[in-house]
Write a structure and sequence with these properties.
Layout: E1 3-5, H1 22-36, H2 46-55, E2 70-76, E3 79-86, E4 93-98, H3 112-122, E5 124-129, H4 141-161, E6 166-171, H5 173-189, E7 194-200, H6 210-213, H7 223-233, E8 257-262, H8 268-280, E9 285-290, H9 303-321
Parallel strand pairs: 4-5, 4-6, 6-7, 7-8, 8-9
Antiparallel strand pairs: 1-9, 2-3, 3-5
Helix pairs in contact: 4-5
Length: 323
């Protein structure tokens, strides 16, 4: 069902229709029906989309908040930065999580169950960082807040959580912001102390890779939705600046990474290209490709989603234990 590669090539059969299980096909068909019953994201107002997510009146149910999550905050460049913290019984490292949502949607406290599962399975304290969203606060506000959270963690992880072994990761825009944060920490702070990066179907070229431009009929984030996100987040003339699109950055001295993506995700090329560039810069990298996976597939109750999450937890645990 999956492949994890280093410098070796990909198996081309992963990308053929025969590689997609009946279970995945059925889940995708159901999602297509649900998406067709509502206006696409790019035809809605961001505030209305956020409200529907919080209230559970859109395609997804209202977020679950767990009692063992702790709400904290740190000082940021434009006010307090909220944190959602989960601390398991055994802490061997700290995982800085950056949420997705196209730099426009989402919050740090809308994935409690996944964060707590990460904490327990990988034996890490999980710190989920909030950041300012566009269009109210476009680039560089969000990246600035993520950089501040990483700087705080580098300085306080031992005193707060008893470990100096740091990892970072996120999904979609969170994968992008995780990569940007690693580069800023290296270049602006001389810090290369992260032990691993869990980069899940991130966008690494905001000027659009071929799979993005060809994704006009893709589910969840078709080309028009990606353009909607980008238009709110950053002007067109800046979209291939290395601080905006990390695919164009110098990628030396970065930690081992796991890139996760589904074959039907319009951000497929972003992970394929970034994985190869990560390797070419002299870093360790693994690539996990899931046949038939759409954007956000690991949030679905299907086998490839369960496998993808388990592989991510295993990666975080391995890099922490090996640090």
């Amino acid at each position: 069902m999956t492949t994890a590669t280093g410098a070796v090539g990909l198996d081309p059969t992963l990308f053929g229709p025969d590689a997609v299980s009946e279970e995945t096909r059925a889940a995708n068909a159901l999602m297509a029906e649900q998406l067709a019953a509502a206006p696409p994201t790019h035809e809605q107002d961001p505030v209305a989309v956020r409200r529907a997510r919080l209230e559970g009146t859109g395609r997804l149910p209202a977020p679950v908040r767990l009692d063992n999550g702790e709400d904290r905050s740190i000082s940021g460049p434009a006010g307090d930065i909220p944190l959602r913290v989960f601390v398991p019984e055994t802490v061997n490292g700290v995982y800085l999580h950056i949420h997705g949502g196209g730099w426009v949607l989402g919050t740090h406290d809308q994935q409690d169950e996944r964060l707590w599962e990460t904490a327990q399975t990988a034996n890490v304290a999980v710190v989920s960082a909030g950041y300012r969203l566009a269009p109210e606060d476009p680039y560089p506000a969000g990246p600035d807040d993520c950089e501040t959270a990483a700087t705080w963690l580098a300085e306080h992880a031992v005193s707060e959580f008893g470990s100096d072994v740091l990892t970072i990761g996120g999904e979609s825009a969170g994968g992008h912001l995780s990569a940007v944060t690693l580069l800023r920490m290296r270049d602006r702070h001389g810090f290369t102390g992260f032990a691993g990066a869990n980069l899940v179907y991130g966008a690494y070229d905001l000027g659009m890779t071929p799979s993005q431009t060809r994704g006009t009929e893709a589910m969840v984030i078709p080309t028009a939705t990606m353009e909607w996100f980008y238009d709110y987040f950053v002007p067109a003339e800046q979209r291939r600046d290395p601080d905006v699109s990390p695919l164009y950055s110098e990628l030396h001295d970065l930690p081992p990474a796991l890139f996760t993506v589904g074959t039907l995700d319009p951000l497929l090329d972003d992970s394929l290209f970034m994985h190869q560039r990560w390797l070419a810069a002299g870093n360790d990298s693994e690539l996990a490709v899931y046949p038939g996976g759409v954007h956000g597939f690991n949030g679905l109750p299907i086998t490839i989603g369960t496998e993808a999450n388990a592989q991510q937890y295993d990666f975080i645990k391995r890099v922490v234990d090996g640090a």
